[in-house]
Amino acid sequence: MGGSTIGSAFHVVTFGESHGPAVGVVIDGVKPGLALNVDVIRAELARRRPGTSDLVSPRREPDMPEILSGVFEGRTTGAPICIVIRNVDADPGEYQAVADLFRPGHGDISWFAKYGIRDWRGGGRQSGRETVGRVAAGAVAREIIGRAGMSVRGHVVEIAGISAPSAANHAVDWAAVESSPVRCGDPVAGAAMADAIREAASSGESVGGIVEVVAAGVPAGLGEPVFGKLDAELARALMSIGAVKGVEIGEGFNAARLRGSDMVDEMAGGDFLSNHAGGILAGVSNGMPVVCRIAVKPTPTVGHELRTVDIDGNDVVFSRDGRSDPCICPRIVPVAEAMVAIVLADSYMSQQAVR
Amino acid sequence: MGGSTIGSAFHVVTFGESHGPAVGVVIDGVKPGLALNVDVIRAELARRRPGTSDLVSPRREPDMPEILSGVFEGRTTGAPICIVIRNVDADPGEYQAVADLFRPGHGDISWFAKYGIRDWRGGGRQSGRETVGRVAAGAVAREIIGRAGMSVRGHVVEIAGISAPSAANHAVDWAAVESSPVRCGDPVAGAAMADAIREAASSGESVGGIVEVVAAGVPAGLGEPVFGKLDAELARALMSIGAVKGVEIGEGFNAARLRGSDMVDEMAGGDFLSNHAGGILAGVSNGMPVVCRIAVKPTPTVGHELRTVDIDGNDVVFSRDGRSDPCICPRIVPVAEAMVAIVLADSYMSQQAVR
Amino acid sequence: MGGSTIGSAFHVVTFGESHGPAVGVVIDGVKPGLALNVDVIRAELARRRPGTSDLVSPRREPDMPEILSGVFEGRTTGAPICIVIRNVDADPGEYQAVADLFRPGHGDISWFAKYGIRDWRGGGRQSGRETVGRVAAGAVAREIIGRAGMSVRGHVVEIAGISAPSAANHAVDWAAVESSPVRCGDPVAGAAMADAIREAASSGESVGGIVEVVAAGVPAGLGEPVFGKLDAELARALMSIGAVKGVEIGEGFNAARLRGSDMVDEMAGGDFLSNHAGGILAGVSNGMPVVCRIAVKPTPTVGHELRTVDIDGNDVVFSRDGRSDPCICPRIVPVAEAMVAIVLADSYMSQQAVR
Amino acid sequence: MGGSTIGSAFHVVTFGESHGPAVGVVIDGVKPGLALNVDVIRAELARRRPGTSDLVSPRREPDMPEILSGVFEGRTTGAPICIVIRNVDADPGEYQAVADLFRPGHGDISWFAKYGIRDWRGGGRQSGRETVGRVAAGAVAREIIGRAGMSVRGHVVEIAGISAPSAANHAVDWAAVESSPVRCGDPVAGAAMADAIREAASSGESVGGIVEVVAAGVPAGLGEPVFGKLDAELARALMSIGAVKGVEIGEGFNAARLRGSDMVDEMAGGDFLSNHAGGILAGVSNGMPVVCRIAVKPTPTVGHELRTVDIDGNDVVFSRDGRSDPCICPRIVPVAEAMVAIVLADSYMSQQAVR
Description:
The structure is a homotetramer. By secondary structure, chain A is of the alpha+beta class.
């Protein structure tokens, strides 16, 4: 029950702290015979890596994965796959100053309440660096779902109040997304988002936004009824990403304002005529693209002085110490994709067991 | 993996179809020594029961629970508790007309893709009637968390675009909520919501809304890091409710538009000065009230003709058949509360294992 | 974690106490489309029912199952199946005398240490009556594995030191097993066993024995490596039956005395030439019959005075109170078969997810 | 469901192949604040290491563990602990000859049926080398249960038909066990066992035996009723060790021949007067030592020619290739201890959740 575990048929356990020796993942329940090599994983890790532009954290990590098990002669064997990524640019010394206080807006205080002990080096296990393990697992999950015709892609649809079109009603230029430093395929909106991030950073602030992930090629029938609904599993997986405060599927919160007739996706000739549902009906995929959006809060590490308490309960004032991202949205895109891929791989394998 | 299972330490399995003999739940992992009797469960079930006003489904179910196991001399023994509620007002005949078609907006088509077989009687397992099992389990969960000082309450904060204040920044009159037919504590907004529902119903339409659930007295330290975060488990649990299309915690989607300094909850004198986080930091409760909101779609069973297909793939037109709710929000309140209580009971018991 | 749960893909939760209103089971994860009716379940329950001969407990239970969910028009729908069996001949009054003491050899004392509360009516949840839920689940499991060509049969191979041939090296007359009151297919050994039971009963004693279960038609490839080995899952499932103190597979404890060359099953023409392994190699089925044996202790409810303590810790003397079996082996046969069938159904469904 | 996972509250996943880069383990759900360092783990690994005498495999592995996560300043933080042990003396070349055939008595054929692919290097994941991960996890489990006053020790009670006294009725000299090359505390029996192993090895044979594990200080109340009984979990955990074909608790198979009065452990003055039950009543610990025994088969890698088939189904003859143990019993002792410690740690943490 330690919490670092997700998935049943495709069972993932991640490990590692921001400033410990390494981060990584073990996946138990991988299909045998998948082509898999370290380059596939490295390519995904590169998409979430820090230090790639002035819009993200300057920490420089090569993020070179090593596959310790489960692959033989370039193919998965069915045995657990362990992937380890060493931390290279980890300087715990820069966190010495926060060893005795609870950084405002971080989980320092809640985790201390939970464990009665803390690893203060860069947030330890709390750090966004744990998402390296998620992305590595997602790379393996993509191989499984890819063989079944599914693909998962994400993009930024809002930063600091500047919005770009949803893939639900607009053709997204996915190549443009990948070449955009904010991962927005709309060049005008993307440029404005980048400006907003720089403006916030220059004033010691951070900004939030909305990331959308779309899974195409999802066959009808994935997801388990009642508590194991596909959208429920996606919500859990996406909400588990550090900065996420909301998850929606299809029309999401907008559905609260629609009338029944406008929410229903009618059918003709065997096809759905719309996708208000976001590809999921009563918790089970209906063959349409699965569309999820997540609300990403602004990172709490800002340059302003904020009031907090130390571990003895004394009032103290804190301002940023340590490297951080003024907007985490671009780097969350590959993490959110990984989570969707993990859920789909698990659902797909589970569905094989039923039929 | 059948999906009707939730929770680890407090392990819940529900069962039953809308028009089968019964619905119910088994809970494996109940703490021993809790006072529990059938009246406590009946009282909770009465809160979600249909047929109580002109705003909800006219189906008349007494929802009389029977406790089959796990309770002796008025106390839980630690053994699994099975609670069964017989279906009384179940008339499958009224669904004969939909036996061969996929009702638009329902999971008929996706579940058929999953299972290759269907129980067309009132949606079978898809029906909202399965939530009876959730509410019964929630009643037991409330006993566990109540002993630990936690309470869970919900209310409607929006229907058909008419909004009422959030508990996050307004004192809610909970007694007024319970006496309101729309479960809104604000009398003006509540009356307008009721009018909007009646207006929609009279034109054969349905409307959606937003339900908020607040858990008070949650001790700091609940929730497991990474994938098992408290907000992730809440998101899964709440998104698993039939009509829910979005979940948010604390500021939720609004967080996407805030700056870092405005999102952080500062502290002084050992207390948080605000609750933008909604009681959860880095996935672990921080001692503040846990605040969740869910987006509820309008029910798909409307009076208008909608295009769909039959099980042979032929185009057909369908309009409402069977009893339904023009707005499900009021009846979702006790269900959402139950899901939050279940998650908290499970998290609380899991945390005991760690320390 | 309450313990009344087994299986992953085929997920079983049992409930109910000896002298409560009912016993039963919910199975979440049943394949859809299986033919299933109440007679199939009743027939299996009849095989473990008490009151059928002078060799077993005189309690008279009709064991009439009711299927509350998951079956529609005679077929499974994929939804959870709840099966309830009412307790009819439950007379808690006869246990009043043991309400305040720990019966010797029973779990009264250990369960009280666990829960701090007890249901003293006939052992409550401890009672062998909980196996009704196992047998009902096993009946459903048999439908799944039966479709895949597997069958499970058990018989008594030893009682009170009197042994009968193992199916591993002797053709068992399964019809004779079923008509034998001790479930032994060898008429001479069976008669001696029956005499030994009567002799023990007449002197207020009970006797133990060994039950063997054989699964035929098990395809090669079932079982998960390392901790989830097929033999490991079988060992857990079989050891979980109340009176079982040992489990062995194939040669079992005899393997400790063999030399390597004598333990290996050689192959020729694609076939194994022997089955010392009992159908499982490195935890995975090899296509040969799976052979398990369990050691069944004599029931602790005897007519002699035995020293024990009451719940206040005072020394007391106890002799039998309540109905009991002088030898539980014949009635354990269908329970052990059910456990093997449950494990095979789960393994089979899990294996579908992998390939 | 990949099978390399065990435990709920104390959740263990192992990984690694005999001749891959490394073997190891991740434990999710470790209590925070435990003192833990690499030396503790190394000491346990040294107890199962090959190459330590002429009675075991000559493979030379230093088995140097590295802790990658979950420990900070010498204490566990509650985060997952990953421990990696590099394979050093791995020469896959020596297995090239078996790349295309199924070694007799090994899982090569059953695993190939399962996965359709194989890692033929020294058995890959099948190899006993995977037990390194178990022993590392066991070292962590010992810290948890040790704090609660529990200890776990094992010894060899039979090899090649030569038996030594059980700890159930004889005081074992545990120091003598550890200094004995066969891990038998009885010097006469131990010497005879060693002779028997050498004799078997000299004729190209292998021998089996029986290992006993005793857990002392186990508080009453551990274990979950019905399927999650403590003895059931122990049986699963112990049967999951590669060469094990049988598991028994307390009197075990001998219980089949006892009369009820002789099996019951009477009580006086609050104490049990005997321990036929092996410390477990109705699946829950009763405060007496927990006594388990496992039947270990002779290893199948012998010097004699044995008939088998190749992966194309052709008949072939095989004799030993690769390093092996003529008797695996001495090296299984620390593995079996580790499995018992893992089960107890998980049961102990689970029990904390209940009360």
